[in-house]
Amino acid sequence: MSQSEPAASGPAELLRRRLDDDPSRPLVTYYDDARGERVELSARTFDNWVAKTANFLVDGLAAEPGGRVVLALPPHWQTAVWLAACWSAGLVAEPVDPAALRERAAAGAEPLGASGPYILAAAEEVLDVVLADPGLDTDAEEVVGLSLHPLGGPLADCPVGVTDYAAEVRSYGDRFAAGPQVSPALPALDVTKTTFTGAELVAEARAAARKWELGASSRILVDMPFGTLDGVLAGLVAPLASGASVIIQRNFDKATLDRRLTVEHVTAVAGLPGWKDASGSVRRLA
To answer: Into which family does the record put it (predicted)?
Structure first.
């Protein structure tokens, strides 16, 4: 990490620094072993998606700095894009694990349990659950559905009142300019009933990167939901703070592990069963 980084920078500034340093190097790689998917995004491509999504939020959904966005999304490269887009636009991201939503619904509880106003971004696989939440009509200002299709395909069936992200986002510009109200002092992340400003989130990321000994040559394989601070740090912000790149893993097939560690030049892992380091969620490899 550069010693010249400003103490009060936010996560959007970390992405801009990454673009300045090495825009063509991979930033996020995504695997879904159940679907046989692999997607790799350079910092430049990732930033283009972030800019389009931020423009969609601001110009398409009228989101304003300080507003809240609930992300009912699984570990996925598009989840990382939405987090970064929220921070670029000065919005508070509240990631929740879709699996936890299904568990709450099965137990008879309100799956989201969120009070409004907020924008909801939900994966297609969990749309039926969130749309059944009795508080959704009064609290959610907008509902956006994500197919998470590897080729950017639309929702298989877009319910009434839901905006199809894939069908809308490509029409927005791939450059985003934040307004003067957006600053690192704004709330940026709400996880496990704790809110972090952009500056606090970056400070947490830099501390985690030092603890996990991440650097520009690090490649971290992550199999964690984004619904916790460690998940957000390992899956996006600590790699941004340290210059590392991240491999987001879903539906992990342990039979692929040895080959993936080699092919992807993995230097650290997070969230893999039996692979946690005693000092934290990330384990460095020899």
So the answer is: Belongs to the ATP-dependent AMP-binding enzyme family.
pLDDT tier for residue 197 given thresholds of 50, 70 and 90: very high
The Cα–Cα gap between 30 and 47 comes to: 16
- With 80 as the cut, is the pLDDT of residue 48 above it? yes
What does 23-42 look like in DSSP terms, one character per residue? TTSEEEEEEETTTTEEEEEE
pLDDT of residue 276: 64
Rounded CA-CA distance 62/71 in Å is: 17
Upstream peptide bond of 239 is cis (omega within 30 degrees of 0) = no
Instruction: Report d(CA 280, CA 134) in Å as an integer.
Output: 38
pLDDT mean across residues, the chain: 92
From residue 186, alpha-carbon distances to 18, 66, 182, 218 in Å are 22, 7, 7, 30
Q: Which residues pair with 68 in a beta bridge?
A: 92
Whether residue 240 contacts residue 276, with contact meaning beta carbons closer than 8 Å, is answered with no
N-terminal to C-terminal alpha carbon distance within the chain: 21
Encoding tokens for residue 243?
A: 């210059």
How far is the CA of 90 from the CAs of 93, 145, 183, 188, 191, in angstroms? 9, 21, 7, 7, 16
pTM (global) more than 0.85: yes
Q: Is the pLDDT of residue 245 over 90?
A: yes
